[in-house]
Amino acid sequence: MTPQLATTTALRARLDPFLARLGQFEVRLAITDAERHAAYRLRYEVFHRERGVDAPWMDHANHIECDAFDPHCDHIIVIDSATETPDESPAIVGTYRVMANPAPGLGYYANAEFDLDALLQKHDDTRFCEVGRSCVAPAYRSMRTIEALWCGLWVYACRNSIDAFIGAASFPGTDPKEHALALSFLRHHAPAKTDWTAQVRGRGVPMAMIPAAAIDRHAALRAMPPLVRGYLRLNARFATEAFIDRAFGTTDVLVIAPLAAAPLPYRERMARVTGARHPHQDRVLES
Length: 287
What we know:
Blueprint: H1 10-14, E1 18-22, E2 25-29, H2 33-50, E3 74-80, E4 92-99, E5 114-115, H3 117-122, E6 128-136, H4 143-160, E7 164-172, H5 180-189, E8 199-200, E9 205-206, H6 217-222, H7 226-233, E10 237-238, E11 241-245, E12 250-258, H8 264-274
C-alpha cells in the first residue's frame, strides 16, 4: 500500500460505512484500500483520460488521481448494485470526497484558491465540511446519480453534525466567457452575503458578465454542471469572483452551503429518503 492510499481519518473507523440506498444505487463510505483505490481510479479516468488533466500528483503508473489531502478525507462512493464486474469488485460509478476537519499542515484544499481565513474566523462556531473531487462515470451522468451522491452527503452531515458544506465547484475550461450566462446568474441571483464569502487569492474573475435583466433563468440553469444546480437546490451561495485553475483546466467558484439555509421541504425529503435527520433539522437560516 502506498502512503497516498493510507487512511488516517478517525471518522472512517467509527462510522457505519453504509449511508443510503436509492434504487439500484448503494451509497457508502470507502473503507478498504481497494474501494479508495477504485474511487481514485474513477477520478483518474474522468479528470485525466476524459478531460486531459495532467497534474503533478497523478499516479500514471497505477492510474489513480490522489493528492496530499486524500488521506485526511472520507470518500463517498456510489455503487451500482445491478452491475457485475469481471473481478466481482463493487461497480463504483460516482464518488465525492469530504473532509470534516482541516488537514493537518494543509488546511482546506479550496484555501489555495480562495482566502477562507476571514470566513472561518467569522463563523468559528460553525462546523464546516469541505467537499470536492466529485465525479461520475460517463454512462451514469444523470440527476439520479447526483441525487444518490447528495443522499450520501446528507447522511454524512447528519452523523457528524456538519453545519455547512464549503468547496470549489468547477466549470470546464479556463475561459470564463464560455460560461458567462451561468456565472452571471450565480453572481446576480445567488451571491454570498459579505460575512459568508471569501476573496479569490491572486487575480479573480468577475462573474457578472451579463446584466441581470438579460439573463434567461432556464437557459442559465441548463448551462450549469449538474453539481452546481444541486448546490442551488440547497440555497447555496457563491463568492462573487471565480478562480482559474490552470492545473485542472477549470473555472472554479466557491460554494458556501449552510444546511440551515436549505429549504425545509428539501430537508424533509432527504430525511424521508435516507432516514437521517440533521441535528438542526428545523433550524432556519436566512440565505
